[in-house]
Amino acid sequence: MARGWVRAIAATPDLRSQIRLVGLVDVKPEVATALAAEFDLKDVVIGSDLDAVLAETKPDILFDVVVPAARREVVATGFRHGCHVLSEKPMATSIEAGRELVRLADEAGKLHAVVQNRRFISGVRRIRRFVEEGALGELTGIHCDFFIGAHFGGFREEMDHVLLLDMAIHTFDAARFIADKKPIAVYCHEENPRGSWYRHGAAAMAIFELSDKVTFTYRGSWCAEGANTSWESAWRITGTRGTLLWDGAESFRAHTVSGGDGFLREPLPLEIPEPADPRQTHGHASVIADFVAAIRSGQKPETASDDNINSLAMVFAAIESARTRQRVTI
């Protein structure tokens, strides 16, 4: 994942002009050395001791790209050294741990945000604008399908609740952003289907109740092979005046209906607007740019942890519902 972050900075002139990478820390220093060589990073301090590298380099920002179980100590260490911290998702391994990170950021007087890069893509931004402008009338439902047979190897294949915790949070967060509603409750069924190469929880189906009587449904699997959806899921968004379909890639279709008579009304196509701000459509680069801009302006970044914890709460409520087989309030 660190390679993606460094590539985003290296490939974005505005970020290159604002950010100078001064250190790389890894439990295996040879991995950091290889990353520095790959991107021709000169004069970076490399080590396996985060405290020592932060003390030597004195950075403004710590990019936290560790596995979730190590998140708390890395973030807390960054705050002790006076850093703002931008973390990979998920922000924590429990809702209690997430609340602690919010508290630590507040006590340190530093920004802490989470890389929800999937909300910083053109498709999601276009849909948010389309919904905001009322083209579908009042929003009634968001329905997402995610089916990909992904063979990662490594820690993901050993995780508990791997789909919900490591991947579904992207779709949950994007749906919450598009709807601009609060999550209220969820019912979720989780399973590890026959043939799964994951240890636990490679598939799930969830029904979320959002505020203003909006329903969000999610069907997903990380071990469904033969007909992959987009990594962004396939979306159906319904409103009182029409429906939008998005395949998660380049295909958009939206229709309202004409007239008020007949068994099936005549569909009329709607145009999907371009994103309000194209700078917010470049994934990791846009998240990092938003975070840097927030530091400079004193404003809160879009994916600040005290907001992103609401997406995390959706994940852990879904996990609790799957465990208890009951509706869980958020």
Automatic annotation (TrEMBL):
Q: Which Pfam families match?
A: GFO_IDH_MocA, GFO_IDH_MocA_C3
Record domain Gfo/Idh/MocA-like oxidoreductase N-terminal: where: 14-113
MF terms in GO: nucleotide binding; oxidoreductase activity
The name under which this protein is listed is Oxidoreductase protein
All copies of the GFO/IDH/MocA-like oxidoreductase domain together span 124-244
Instruction: Name the keywords, alphabetized.
Output: Oxidoreductase, Plasmid
Record InterPro entries: Gfo/Idh/MocA-like_OxRdtase_N, Gfo/Idh/MocA_oxidoreduct, GFO_IDH_MocA-like_dom, NAD(P)-bd_dom_sf
